[in-house]
Amino acid sequence: MNKNYFQILRGGINTTFQDEGRKNLYHIGIPFSGAMDNRNYLLANKLVGNKLGAPVIEFAYQGPLLKYFGKKINISITGDVSFKIKRNLNEINGKCYQTIGLENGDELDIISTNKSVYGYLALSAQIDLKYQWSSCSINTKANIGANYGRKLEKDQKINILKINDNLNNKRLNFINTKIEKIRVIKGTNFDYFSDTGKKIFFEREFTVSKLSDRMGMRLEGSKIDNIINTNIKSEGLIKGVIQVPADGNPIIMLSDHGTIGGYPKIGVVISADYDRLVQLTPGSKIKFEEVNLTSAESLFNLYELETQNLISQI
């Protein structure tokens, strides 16, 4: 029996193992998957001294309740998250973006994310996980990845193979910011839509629907009129592409998206805005702003530099 492990007392709403995801498998219908909010994923690993591409536990809205058994281990939680450590008869309010030591018998209660969707739990350890196509990332729609492609549930165990030797305490002063406008470049089927439809897309406000998950984000608002054809021959999709089906309401493809689709594409969310896009909760308002490809590349480079600067501060 493994000496160091977590017992899951509550699975949470959508708790999965995620890492950097899978590359170059679109040709066999496998998307990247991986952590939805890449910046918070990287920061969680850096805080506990892991390799940046190590697996973490991603949770949405309500996180898991875990009981730890074993030698002292460090954890970190990133995102806008409320959580507590239960030690003997005491409760300790947790703080994000810093390391926390867990001892034998401690309970970690990840209560909820705050006005956001995803949070990340990194362990200063090597987790016992099975990999598929060089990644442990779980895609529950396709049953791919660790844990047989299923989300984590009550009464399961998370076994630890090795705890990191370095258990230094670290912290980062960081506040997640909200995004006012989602910047996009024009999609390959932009001219399928009427002038009025294009104006609506860039000038009107849309609402994030409850029908959103790791696969896609459905939006509600004024109908975007299609003047050519509401269906096209199925072709490749990428993360962040915005399709418009016959009902005129946009759908943004997210990390577990299907790799082909037959709805016209009006735009693509730029990579620099993706991390904050996925943190928008149902009921949030979205407005789109057009940028060109050169600007999108510059904004991504700036976002990467900001992320690396944060990592270097830990």
Question: What labels would you give this structure?
Answer:
single chain; alpha+beta; 2 domains; Cyclophilin; 314 residues
Outline the low-pLDDT stretches: none
Q: If you compute it from the alpha carbons, what radius of gyration comes out, rounded to the nearest whole angstrom?
A: 20 Å
3D shape: elongated
Largest β-sheet summary: 8 strands, mixed
Following the backbone from N to C, one meets helices and strands in this order, namely EEHEEEEEEEEEEEHEEEEEEEHEEH
The overall number of domains is 2
Sheet with the most strands: spatial strand order: 21-14-15-18-17-20-13-22
Strand residue percentage? 25-35%
Query: CA-to-CA gap between the ends?
Result: 35 Å
The percentage helix is: 10-25%
Strand runs, count = 22
Structural class: alpha+beta
Summarize model confidence as the mean pLDDT: 96
Q: Which SSEs are present, and which pair or pack?
A:
Blueprint: E1 5-10, E2 16-18, H1 38-47, E3 56-60, E4 65-69, E5 73-78, E6 81-87, E7 90-93, E8 100-102, E9 107-113, E10 118-123, E11 125-127, E12 157-163, E13 182-186, H2 195-203, E14 206-212, E15 216-220, E16 235-236, E17 241-243, E18 251-253, E19 260-261, E20 265-269, H3 271-277, E21 285-286, E22 288-290, H4 293-312
Compact description:
The chain has 314 residues and is of the alpha+beta class. 15% of the residues lie in helices and 32% in strands. The protein has helices spanning 38-47, 195-203, 271-277, 293-312; strands spanning 5-10, 16-18, 56-60, 65-69, 73-78, 81-87, 90-93, 100-102, 107-113, 118-123, 125-127, 157-163, 182-186, 206-212, 216-220, 235-236, 241-243, 251-253, 260-261, 265-269, 285-286, 288-290.
